[in-house]
Amino acid sequence: YNLPFKASYDSLDKETQRQVTCLADNIYFEAAHEPLDGKKAVAFVTINRLQTGNYAKDICGVVHQKTGGTCQFSWYCDGKSDVPKNPEAWEISVEVATSFISTDRFRGVSEGSTHYHAKYVEPNWIGDRGMRRIGTIGSHIFYKWH
């Protein structure tokens, strides 16, 4: 991927690096094989949740958050290793997360979505009153509260 606004991870302070790593984890484990827009959309959902004030207080908290014992992002509680195995996909995830946090260039891809799921699953929350389908990017369907 050729990111137009690439930022340097090493130039960030330690806390920002921690937040970038959490966002990169979410991008990697949710969208490693998605097109760039799919990676950005996953990042947006994470940030959109943070900005609503209805979730945790920082990116790492949002990524690791459980509600009623269920993880918000399935990869975090699936019992599998959370160590990235594909170095190239991990590097791209870090680049997207770093650029996303360090710049304001990726705004709008997910149109305010706070939820998504893979096309091959149908979670029970999609029928919740007020949940509105926004669209599909890659293999994910995105939603937001209306």
Keyword list:
alpha+beta; 146 residues; 3-stranded antiparallel beta sheet; 5 strands
Describe the model:
This protein is α+β, with helices and mostly antiparallel strands. It is 39% helix and 14% strand. It has four helices and five strands. It has helices at residues 14-31, 36-52, 59-64, 87-102; strands at residues 66-67, 70-71, 115-118, 131-137, 140-145. It has a three-stranded antiparallel sheet, with helices on one face. Helix 1 (14-31) crosses helix 4. The N and C termini lie far apart (34 Å). The mean pLDDT is 86.
Topology overview:
Blueprint: H1 14-31, H2 36-52, H3 59-64, E1 66-67, E2 70-71, H4 87-102, E3 115-118, E4 131-137, E5 140-145
Helix pairs in contact: 1-2, 1-4, 2-4
* Main beta sheet strand tally, sense and closure: 3 strands, antiparallel
Distance between the termini: 34 Å
Helical proportion, percent range: 25-40%
User: Which stretches are low in confidence, meaning pLDDT under 50 for 5 or more residues running?
Assistant: none
Spatial strand order of the main sheet: 3-5-4
Q: What is the compact description of this entry?
A:
The chain is of the alpha+beta class and 146 residues long.
